[in-house]
Specification:
- By secondary structure, the protein is mainly alpha-helical.
- Helices cover 50% and strands 2% of the residues.
- The chain contains 27 helices and two strands.
- Strands 1-2 form a two-stranded antiparallel sheet.
- α12 packs antiparallel against α14, α12 runs parallel beside α15 and α20 packs across α23.
- The N and C termini lie far apart (95 Å).
- 31% of the residues are buried.
- The N terminus and C terminus are likely disordered.
- Bound molecules: 2-acetamido-2-deoxy-beta-D-glucopyranose (NAG) (2 copies).
- One 2-acetamido-2-deoxy-beta-D-glucopyranose binds next to loops.
- One 2-acetamido-2-deoxy-beta-D-glucopyranose binds next to α7 and α10.
Length: 411
């Protein structure tokens, strides 16, 4: 019974699966744990499938504490002969309540390598996690996180968000643990495995602490999913390989901020210069939040039929200079969808700068444009008139009627 857990990642799914079946038939692994085990073996489980969007990493987390266990194990006292001073195979035969009562968090932290080497059941690992969490209520110290190895996969993103991660070595070792079936990923490069939420949280902590990822780490991350892109600083994004840009799909970039999109867009444009037409548009679409006005104009002239969801991701200052006809050609049959967005940025900001009669000519019921007879005037004057109301963009803007000007002249 010295099957070390690290070997699981390297053995095939069927072998790992039969070990699981064995544990299940022995009553050692809970079904919920078997599911977590699947994720170790590289199979995407339902709760992981919901996590391809960056923001959802912050939501679903596997239930860790089983209240039934607590009731059974809480108030029991460790029988003196059962007290654990070392983590070894004998503990595999302990009841959960005995583990709870006889193993303490300090011992687990000090002998994490043994925790990983002994084939404990997932239910037993749950008990260990609970003991460690009680011992470190503020989060695990870095001396422990760097030695976690496979135990890392027992943790939730919420646990990891309590950590300080300052060492690239820690990131690398935990990435290695999470990597799983890299061979499969290479065999099917278009369908890369999803980024484990734990890994996403880990990278987020490291980058938030000012950590820099090296090229080797970026390459390992790329074998998971491009969804980590939004965790990188603009400087780091400059060294991301073209293959990563090719692999990104729209949800992968949902969490990126404007400075990140400003770097990613020109890099993606360069990466995709070998394709054109609809294929180019399909690839560049997730990156358009970084596109300047002139590129949107070019897409408009190609009649790409942009969907409204993509239009909403465009930079307001890139959208504002577009004419009514340009927006019409950009969206094509999707134009009617603007109506539902007319109260929100960037559609609203664009509408208030168009003549209402031009908007009317679109025939989709957009309101809020400028009535006939309004003037084009300098933005600074407009701001002065509106008491400093903030407007995005610069240059000229269609604005107030002469009567308003007259009303504002001091008497
Ligand atoms: C982590 O592992 C290193 C070497 O493997 C060891 O020297 C160190 O004491 C371990 N730290 C903890 C907290 O167990
Ligand atoms: C993280 O670092 C802060 C500031 O140094 C410290 O107060 C906190 O206890 C650390 N947290 C952990 C889990 O080590």
């Amino acid at each position: 019974m010295r099957t070390a857990q690290p070997a699981w990642g390297s053995c095939g799914t069927s072998a790992g699966g039969s070990f699981l079946l064995l544990l299940l038939s022995l009553g050692w692994a809970l079904p919920s744990r078997a599911q977590a085990a699947d994720s170790r073996l590289g199979v995407r489980t339902p709760w992981l499938q919901g996590t391809s969007r960056v923001l959802s990493w912050w939501r679903p987390e596997p239930p860790v504490i089983l209240s039934r266990d607590r009731r059974d194990t809480d108030s029991k006292v460790c029988p003196p002969t059962r007290k654990a001073y070392v983590i070894d195979e004998n503990l595999v035969f302990y009841e959960d309540w005995e583990l709870e009562a006889c193993v303490d968090g300090a011992l687990l932290a000090a002998q994490m390598d043994r925790v990983n080497a002994v084939p404990f059941t997932y239910q037993q690992l749950d008990v260990f996690k609970r003991k460690l969490d009680e011992f470190y209520p503020q989060g695990y110290p870095e001396s422990l996180t760097q030695n976690l190895s496979y135990f890392f996969l027992e943790l939730s993103p919420a646990d990891i968000r309590k950590w300080n991660v300052t060492s690239l070595e820690t990131v690398k070792s935990l990435l290695q643990v999470s990597k799983g079936q890299k061979r499969d990923a290479q065999a099917t490069p278009r369908r890369l495995r999803g980024l484990l939420p734990q890994v996403a949280a880990l990278i987020a902590r490291y980058v938030a602490g000012g950590g820099e990822l090296d090229q080797a780490t970026l390459d390992v991350l790329a074998t998971f999913s491009p969804a980590y892109l939004c965790f990188l600083s603009p400087e780091q994004l400059r060294s991301v390989r073209h293959s990563v840009l090719w692999a990104a799909r729209p949800p992968d970039l949902d969490a990126c901020r404007p400075p990140q999109m400003a770097i990613l867009y020109p890099r993606a444009r360069a990466a995709f210069q070998t394709v054109s037409g609809p294929e180019y548009f399909a690839k560049i679409k997730p990156y358009l939040g970084g596109a300047p006005t002139e590129d949107l104009r070019a897409l408009s002239s190609q009649k790409v039929n942009m969907d409204v969801a993509t239009f909403k991701t465009l930079r307001t200052e890139s959208v504002l200079p577009l004419t009514v006809a340009e927006v019409q050609h950009l969206l094509g049959p999707n134009l009617a969808g603007l109506k539902a967005e007319q109260e929100r940025s960037p559609v609203r900001d664009w509408i208030v700068r168009q003549r209402q009669e031009d908007l009317d000519s679109l025939g989709v019921g957009l309101h809020g444009g400028l009535p006939n007879g309004y003037l084009v005037m300098d933005l600074r004057l407009r701001e002065a008139l509106s008491g400093g109301a903030r407007l995005v963009g610069s240059g000229t803007v269609l604005t107030a009627a002469p009567t308003l000007l007259l009303a504002l002249i001091p008497k």
